[in-house]
């Protein structure tokens, strides 16, 4: 049986960015159409627009956590706290599995440097490494949601 982690990894390997793959794999579960989820999460790939910061699989997962628990009423502080608590659990487990939340550290190349980005692409590091990160994000979300 395919898991959400498998779905997310499949979306990534088919060409969507890491953040889009994670967010897109869960969108339907929360009444968000996939096209909207893909659009909202597009800028977060490559550590937020190829800046090498927070991993896109992580930011995509945080969007999913927000879809499930995020507050929509200003006075709903319990929803805000629940969102932060689940976010912390997600990030702790992702870091345990992968040693970092930072794209540059995870891939080993500074994606904000065009030469390093080109080198990572030439080495096919995104397919070699990022599919695992995307799959892990989906798997962790399934466990904690």
Overview of the structural elements:
The protein is an all-alpha fold and about 140 residues long. It has one domain (about 5-145). It contains 9 helices and no strands. Helix 1 crosses helix 2 and helix 1 packs antiparallel against helix 9 (about 125-145).
Number of helices: 9
For the termini, the CA-CA separation is: 18 Å
Strand content: under 5%
Unreliable stretches covering 5 or more consecutive residues:
none
Q: What does the main sheet amount to?
A: none
User: How many domain units?
Assistant: 1
Give the fraction of residues assigned to helices.
Answer: 55-70%
- DSSP strand count: 0
Mean pLDDT: 95
Shape: globular
Q: Structural class per helix/strand content? A: mainly alpha
**What is the element string, with H for helices and E for strands?**
HHHHHHHHH
Q: What Rg do the Cα atoms give?
A: 15 Å
């Amino acid at each position: 049986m395919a898991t959400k982690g498998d779905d997310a990894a499949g979306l990534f390997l088919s060409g969507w960015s890491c953040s889009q793959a994670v967010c897109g794999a869960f969108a339907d579960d929360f009444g968000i159409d996939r096209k909207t989820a893909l659009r909202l999460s597009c800028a977060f790939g490559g550590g937020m627009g190829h800046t090498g910061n927070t991993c896109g699989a992580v930011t995509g997962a945080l969007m999913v956590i927000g879809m499930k628990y995020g507050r929509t009423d200003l006075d709903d502080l319990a929803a805000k706290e629940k969102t932060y608590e689940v976010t912390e659990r997600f990030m702790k487990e992702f870091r345990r599995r992968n040693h970092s939340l930072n794209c540059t550290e995870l891939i080993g190349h500074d994606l904000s440097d065009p030469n390093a980005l080109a080198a990572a692409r030439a080495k096919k590091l995104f397919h070699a490494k990022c599919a695992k990160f995307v799959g892990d994000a989906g798997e962790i979300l399934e466990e904690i949601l």
